[in-house]
């Protein structure tokens, strides 16, 4: 079973298609939001997913603190300033192949050329003299072109006769030479501020001789689970309790983004204790992240405490899983109260908290590309609410196909393990029939 998009060829195909379709998806959302504003369709007290995301992001101000880090350990960090190229790449004309460097005037369209080989030039060395007519130099890939040479003939096309090399007729001039600056020119924008650094950016920066770079400070996320029904993994579990999986899953999700996680454990359903723990969290974290306690039950205290020590913007989103969601602030810290059900907790993190943390880090790209795939099975859908099904996405028979992982309850954490994407079903969309297209969002971290 495919659980991750790890094949580079398949990944490249997915990225191309995603780039083409993400703009279409965003246009669709704008039109649908406008339609809801005119015609309704959202249950009382709930706001649409797109509006919830916009309101959350509008509150986030990127961190200003910048620190230097070695390029070799910069994976997943966000570049704080533009980096300009300090020199050309290649820094000089060089050979693209192993072969013989020569002056193109020695080539003939009608007869072979016989040239004297005067030197061997390995990569990393420079020929100090000037190549004259009738001469050639045996050159290795990457070696700087000798003065007087403008063409390199691959060694498999020539024959060697002692100190001479014989070049066939009808060889074009200027072949197999990489020109100075054909990849990068001095002063050009190498990597833009706000870029999430991947291995390719790390390699590019290192190729310019950079050992350290400025990056945005890692956000500190204070993480707290709530509820008497939650027990610490590895400890005793009383009757009626469940082991805490949310805090561990959220720790991993924050870790994927490069955040510094401050684990504050589990807070009991005691109002004064919860108040003290949340205030403590707001003092040590840029973000306070909780799971549970934001629904409408008698013991769901997070919402109540937040109205006293901070503020909540809204607390219900028109979606499933994940309707209860409480974004707000405690002092200077951003607060995100996520649902207690494990799937709902992870889905709301991916949709709302992840882009907020990216913006806090200074990242420019906050969207995860979405694209169309063909449903391999019927997919149920309730009217009036956006649904996020867990899906298994495969590239088969030259196209993307997706099916659900099975039962889709918000407490079925195994559906996230079996899946590698979210299947997105819009508010007004009817149930899906096999063979119809749906929107999908891969789980691949960016």
What is the average per-residue confidence, as pLDDT, rounded to a whole number? 89
- What is the CATH topology assignment of the largest domain? Molybdenum Cofactor Biosythetic Enzyme, Chain A
Structural shape: elongated
Q: What is the terminal-to-terminal distance?
A: 22 Å
Helix content: 10-25%
Kindly provide the radius of gyration, computed on alpha-carbon positions and rounded to a whole number of angstroms.
30 Å
Q: Describe the biggest sheet?
A: 6 strands, mixed
Individual helix count: 8
For the largest sheet, list the strands in their spatial order.
Answer: 7-4-6-5-9-8
What fraction of residues sit in β-strands? Answer: 25-35%
Give an overview of the whole structure:
The chain has 446 residues and is α/β, with parallel strands linked by helices. It has 4 domains: 1-40 and 370-446, MoeA, C-terminal, domain IV (Beta-clip), CATH 2.40.340.10; 43-65 and 217-361, 3-Layer(aba) Sandwich (Molybdenum Cofactor Biosythetic Enzyme, Chain A); 68-88 and 185-216, Molybdopterin biosynthesis moea protein, domain 2 (Alpha-Beta Complex); 94-178, Molybdopterin biosynthesis moeA protein, domain 3 (Beta Complex). It contains 8 helices and 26 strands. The strands form 7 sheets. The protein has a 6-stranded mixed β-sheet, with no helix packed on it. Helix 5 (271-284) packs across helix 6 (302-309). 37% of the residues are buried.
């Amino acid at each position: 079973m495919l659980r991750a998009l790890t094949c580079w060829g398949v990944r490249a195909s997915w990225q191309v298609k995603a780039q083409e379709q993400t703009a279409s998806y965003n246009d669709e959302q704008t039109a649908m939001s406008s339609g809801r504003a005119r015609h309704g369709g959202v249950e009382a007290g709930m706001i649409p997913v797109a509006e919830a995301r916009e309101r959350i992001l509008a509150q986030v101000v990127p961190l200003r603190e910048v620190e230097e880090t070695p390029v070799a350990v910069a994976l997943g960090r966000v570049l704080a300033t533009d980096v300009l190229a300090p020199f050309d790449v290649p820094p000089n004309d060089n050979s693209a192949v192993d072969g013989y460097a020569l002056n193109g005037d020695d080539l003939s369209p009608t007869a072979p050329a016989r040239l004297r080989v005067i030197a061997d030039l390995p990569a990393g060395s420079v020929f100090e003299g000037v190549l004259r007519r009738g001469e050639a130099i045996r050159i290795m890939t990457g070696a700087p072109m000798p003065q007087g040479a403008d063409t390199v003939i691959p060694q498999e096309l020539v024959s060697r006769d002692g100190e001479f090399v014989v070049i066939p007729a009808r060889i074009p001039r200027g072949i197999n030479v990489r020109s100075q600056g054909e990849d990068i020119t001095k002063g050009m924008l190498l990597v833009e501020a706000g870029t999430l650094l991947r291995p390719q950016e790390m390699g590019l920066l290192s190729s310019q001789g950079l050992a350290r770079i400025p990056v945005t400070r890692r956000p500190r996320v204070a993480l707290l689970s709530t509820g008497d029904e939650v027990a610490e993994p590895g400890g005793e579990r009383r009757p009626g309790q469940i082991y805490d999986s949310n805090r561990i899953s959220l720790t991993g999700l924050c870790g994927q983004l490069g955040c510094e996680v401050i684990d504050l454990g589990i807070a009991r359903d005691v109002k004064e204790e919860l108040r003290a723990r949340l205030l403590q969290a707001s003092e040590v974290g840029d973000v306070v992240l909780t799971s549970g306690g934001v629904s409408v039950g008698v013991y769901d205290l997070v919402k109540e405490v937040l109205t006293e020590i901070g503020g909540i913007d809204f607390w219900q989103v028109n979606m499933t899983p994940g309707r209860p969601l409480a974004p707000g602030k405690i002092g200077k810290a951003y607060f995100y109260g996520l649902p207690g059900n494990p799937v709902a907790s992870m889905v709301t993190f991916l949709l709302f908290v992840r882009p907020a943390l990216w913006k806090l880090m200074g990242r420019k790209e906050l969207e995860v590309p979405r694209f169309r795939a063909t449903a391999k099975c019927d997919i149920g859908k309730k009217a009036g609410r956006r649904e996020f099904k867990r899906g298994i996405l495969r590239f088969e028979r030259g196209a993307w196909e997706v099916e659900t992982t099975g039962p889709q309850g918000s407490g079925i954490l195994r559906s996230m393990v079996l899946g590698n994407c979210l299947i997105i079903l819009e508010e007004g969309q009817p149930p899906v029939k096999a063979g119809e297209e749906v929107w999908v969002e891969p789980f691949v971290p960016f």
